[in-house]
Amino acid sequence: MIGTGFDVTLNHVTDRARLLIASALGAPTSYEVGRTIYVEPDVDGVTLQVESTTGQDMSPSAKAFITLAPVGGRERILLTDLDVGGHRVVEVASLRAVGDGKSELSTIGGANVETPPLVRQAQLSAAGALGLRGNKLRSRQSIDIAIVIDGTASMRTWLREGALTAVAQCISGVDLVVGHDEKLDLRVAGSRDPWRSVAAMEVSQEIERQFASIGQISRVELYEPIPSGGQAWCVVTDHAPDVIPETVALIIVLCGPGADRVISAVSGDPRVFCLEVDPFRPASVPALDEASVHRLVSATLMAYRLETEGEQP
Question: Is the pTM of the predicted complex or chain greater than 0.70?
């Protein structure tokens, strides 16, 4: 589930076509390729359709590409390779309000919902490090990763500059490889929300939403048990906790350049992984470069004892 309102754009169609937005309130409204329209679905929902502008069926191989940008969110949702061939009008997706400021996106007809680039990068890095022939561990080796994010005030700096969501997306990418399902268990400590199971494309919006629900707090409970029970988890913070429970597999400490050695020496716990990020870098420079992503992926795999040399038979 994602934010309520969206900017929707039909980016490209391999045939002559346009976007139709239909609701229960009246006839569909049409929009040409490249035009962006704001959509805020209600409980009855709206549907996104692609319609031929020739009055004839589109060619059998016709494909459409649509972008949905949740208003107020940082991540776009890319619907690619939508199969619209052989029809004059094709319904490709629907949006429906489900309460609590969220909407549910359903894709139709084999749409490919692209994962954010960092998620995909971490997914490929994890699969490569494990020597997998595909992008998924076999079920008997799988382990679901859960992530707790420190919700104290100092962490908002890392949220604003992008490092926090970048780390969570990387963990989500690893979870796609090693987990039993396609969702990451996530919680921002200090928010009013319980644990949530979040799809990769929703991680950024969910973190921002949970941070927005935090009131005035002096301390947070990082180690609230996961309802499913028995699951080791990873914590993202900006300091090394004094005491780390056995159920915690990994503590990711966000720090500025040069601080990693100090934090590691003070902690002395091998589960503490310091990730250097420059909070004053230019806006055009990503929070995590390729080397940082690989280091984070390797630390996560090691923490969960996923150090296979090729997929086991």
Answer: no
Quote the CA–CA distance of 272 and 268 in Å, as a whole number: 8
Are 176 and 135 a contacting pair, CB within 8 Å?
Answer: yes
Do 126 and 73 have their domain in common? no
Fill in the DSSP letter of residue 59: P
The last residue of a domain, from among 97, 114, 131:
114
Looking at the 3D structure of the chain, how many domains does it have?
A: 2
CATH number of the domain to which 36 belongs: 2.60.40
pLDDT, tens digit, 9 for 90 and up, residues 34-66: 898 888 887 778 889 999 999 899 998 888 888
Give just the sign of the alpha carbon dihedral 287, 291, 293, 297.
Answer: negative
Residue 136's domain spans which residues?
A: 117-303
pLDDT tens digits, one per residue of 107-162: 665 455 566 788 888 988 998 888 886 677 776 778 888 999 999 989 999 999 89
Measured distance CA(82)–CA(302) in Å, rounded: 38
DSSP 168-212: HHHHHHHHHHHSSSSEEEEEEETSS---EEEEGGGHHHHHHHHHH
The pLDDT tens digits of the residues spanning 19-32 come to: 999 887 777 889 99
Same-domain check for residues 271 and 295: yes
